[in-house]
Design goal:
Layout: E1 3-8, H1 12-27, E2 31-32, E3 41-46, H2 51-66, E4 70-75, E5 82-83, H3 91-95, E6 101-102, H4 111-116, E7 146-150, E8 152-153, H5 164-168, E9 172-173, H6 176-188, E10 193-197, H7 220-228, E11 235-239, H8 248-256, E12 263-265, H9 273-279, H10 285-298, E13 303-310, H11 317-330, E14 334-339, H12 347-351, H13 358-381, E15 387-396, E16 399-404, E17 409-413, H14 416-420, E18 430-438, E19 442-447
Parallel strand pairs: 1-2, 1-3, 3-4, 4-6, 7-10, 10-11, 12-13, 13-14, 17-19
Antiparallel strand pairs: 5-6, 8-9, 15-16, 15-18, 16-17, 18-19
Helix pairs in contact: 7-8, 8-10, 11-13
Bound molecules: 5'-deoxyadenosine and iron/sulfur cluster.
Length: 449
Amino acid sequence: MRRYFLKTFGCAMNSSDSERIETILESIGMEKTEMVENTDVVLLNTCSIKQHAEDRVHGFVHNAKKMGKIVGLTGCMVKNSSLQSSEIKDPLLKKYKKIDLVFRIEDILKLPELLKSFDPTLTQPELPIDELDYLNITPKRTEKYRAFVPIMTGCDKFCTYCIVPFTRGRERSRPFEDILAECERHVLEGVVEITLVGQNVNAYFVDDSVRVPLQRQTDFATLLEKVAQIPGLQRLKFTSPHPRHMGDDVLEVMAKYKNIARTLHLPVQSGSSRILRTMGREHRIDTFKKITTKARELMPEITITTDIIVGFCGETEEDFQKTIKLFEEEQFLVAYISKYSSRKGTFAESKLKDDVLLPEKKRRYDVLNEKLKETSQNENKRIIGDIEAVLVEEVENGMAKGKTHTGRTCVFSLHSSTFQKIPTSCVGKIIPVKITGSDVWSVMGEEIV
Ligand code: 5AD
Ligand code: SF4
């Protein structure tokens, strides 16, 4: 058993965790495959935020089993690291006999031991003892030019609809020095873009023992500034912050350092303060707007993106119209819109009524998506004629694609002198681009030489 296939569902935190899984498996001589057909073991790093996310995982398990593979799960669907033969088994293993093993992501180091029960010849990893905290395992970077660095995990907010505090546990910050050391190492190795990740990145505390869960002031601004100061780091991003901890200090650091991307992802969830209250979100629409106004005052070029849930318990047409109005006022560049999905164990599931019927949720989703097309198009149009720095992710037939410093997707033509060299060597480079046109979801331009 030497080959593994790893699929990641969900957020940036899961992607970052997957890179640590790769380190462990490669340290015991296993090799990654790109196709399920060619593998021995299929590992799925799961997400349970919505029922739909879990359904996709089960579909994958079903197909992998049909091909006769060993199937293992980690991530947010897993509670206890165990095997089908274990005495104390995770509920998932009891319910789904097709799954062979599950492990909590904090227990990555137990993965080789679990796999050994399928192949006794597998070795154990030789890792320093301080790597017992899984975040200290050096990630195997899948891309040379950008890296996701976890700075905290977990969530103390308990929004009434959300399963994350139950799956990821309480907020826990990584030591300041470990984060800085990891970022510095990445930059020395040629990384140009770092994204700081966590369920509530701006709930970062240098010393967790003095953490007051709902305290507004945190140490995130200090950390952000230190990382921004790393010589040679060209672009710094973070995701996802919580409006509660988005103080002026964070915005001021963003404004001060030009290498911090000019885009702010700020999940609002609803445009109605009444719904925000039943969601257990601590912010209201006026406090949300104070943040975006300040951000735009300090950085007029900034784009704002958000997360929205439509059809939450008790959401009326009037509430929904307030969300549409918020889109018009805020001109979001991107919004991740979800239909409310009841999650077992949450406050909303047990105490509130999931009373917006699915066809109505779908209608609100479609209406809001149309509104988003308008606001996104407006935001993209806003920079025609400007010069933007684009980090190239793909190159094909003389055209490059990547993200601008303001978070827009940009497709542009490479100058013939660049193209005649080795065009694919542009991947991972930051190139100045004159923006000449725009579309609903992107801008177009030409490389400037
Ligand atoms: N139903 C629908 N969407 C949800 N989200 C979180 N929980 C649920 C749920 N139960 C969305 C929120 C969050 C994003 C990561 O997923 O918008 O910000
Ligand atoms: Fe879930 Fe709310 Fe925590 Fe975000 S802040 S992870 S939505 S509980």
